[in-house]
Write a structure and sequence with these properties.
The protein is mainly α. It has one domain. The chain contains 5 helices and no strands. Helix 2 packs antiparallel against helix 4. The two termini are about 20 Å apart. Keywords: Membrane, Transmembrane, Transmembrane helix. InterPro entries: Phage_holin_3_6 (IPR009937). This is Holin-X, holin superfamily III.
């Protein structure tokens, strides 16, 4: 017995009208669509949260990079002042260089962490998986989805 005959026999065993069957099918399809939309909302919210973290870290890296540029500018300024002017206070240039290096390390760490957070965003995986199962469920072949 093929699938069509088995399906027809199941239909014949039920004592329902075609209208009742169509109504049940419509109700099931509506429920399925609602569930898929809800799942998509939950997954989208998760993805947005992860993306927000990554963007925040990258923004922090941008601020740190700007501060590094300012510090580097001050370092170059003070270094040139010591080389050209007097050498009575050479620590000012070195102090600026140390601050610049610290800011560059912070910027590198923030950029790496932010990039890692953005790499964790994977989209709507569960929704994609369950949407693939709809055709089998709609045709009464849910066993193929297992």
């Amino acid at each position: 017995m093929n699938e069509e005959e088995a399906s027809y026999l199941r239909y014949r065993e039920e004592d329902r009208s075609l209208g009742e069957i169509a109504s049940d099918l419509l109700d099931n399809a509506t429920t399925l669509i609602r569930q898929e939309v809800e799942l998509a909302k939950v997954e989208a919210k998760e993805s947005a949260t992860k993306a927000g973290k990554g963007v925040g870290m990258l923004a922090g890296a941008g601020v740190a990079g700007l501060l590094a540029l300012i510090a580097l500018t001050l370092t170059a300024w003070w270094g040139m002042a010591v080389l050209i002017g007097s050498s009575d206070d050479p620590a000012l240039g070195w102090g600026g260089l140390i601050v610049t290096i610290i800011w560059l390390v912070i910027a590198g760490i923030l950029a790496a962490v932010g990039k890692g957070e953005l790499n964790k965003v994977r989209g709507l995986k569960q929704t994609q998986e369950t949407v693939k199962k709809i055709p089998n469920a709609a045709t009464g072949h849910e066993e193929k989805n297992r």
